[in-house]
Amino acid sequence: VISSDKEGNIYKALYIQDETGGIEVKRNQNGLYNDFRLGTNVFVRAENLKIGAYGGTLSIGTVPVDKNYENDFIPAPVIKNYVINSRKGNPVKPTVLTIPQVDPKYNNMLIKLEDVQFANGVEKQTENRTLVDADGNRLVVRTSGYARFAETLLPLGSGSITGILTHFHDTPQLTIVSINDVQLDNPRFITVEI
């Protein structure tokens, strides 16, 4: 398990990964962090579930009621039939990448970007923000307005940030699991526009 909904930036989803890749498990339940702690090993029984690829990001869910969607949330009362918690495991180490190395093959996986900063670190926003490196490469950081840290001022410094990489069509985006994964304490650097 590489996700936690404790801080509210992830909603009704459990992100899991192994050495082959990652996937989102859609669950109609909040407070998943109580049962599925970061690093917990889980087993998924996929029989009768359906794979979807909303915006290009893979997920597992139930057959949708609304045919406009590829899949739907697994109802809370039956989730134990599909996702089995081993109660064992270790936190997953993120894959360290640079912004130019971000690729769909890392979709739904925990990544860490180093030597980055927010393009504009002075405004308070609860939406997409832009992360940049010294060469001017950019990556969207997605923050829910319901996240506990949504009202937190963006850090002014540079450093590292860890999160779950997803893609919405051709746009890669990073979702922060915890505000503690944002370590931008170094001085800002000058970026080169590309």
Considering the chains and any ligands shown, give keywords for the structure.
194 residues, 14 strands, mainly beta
Detailed description of the structure:
- The protein has 194 residues and is mainly beta.
- The chain has no helices and 14 strands.
- A hairpin with a 4-residue loop joins strand 10 and strand 11.
- 28% of the residues are buried.
- About 3% of the residues have low confidence.
Mean pLDDT: 91
Strand content: 35-45%
Tell me the total number of β-strands: 14
Helix content: under 10%
Short description:
This protein has 194 residues and is mainly beta. It has no helices and 14 strands.
Helix-strand blueprint:
Blueprint: E1 13-18, E2 21-28, E3 40-44, E4 50-54, E5 57-61, E6 74-75, E7 83-89, E8 95-97, E9 109-118, E10 129-133, E11 138-142, E12 158-168, E13 171-175, E14 182-186
Parallel strand pairs: 2-5, 2-6, 8-9, 11-13
Antiparallel strand pairs: 1-2, 3-7, 4-5, 9-10, 9-12, 10-11, 12-13, 12-14
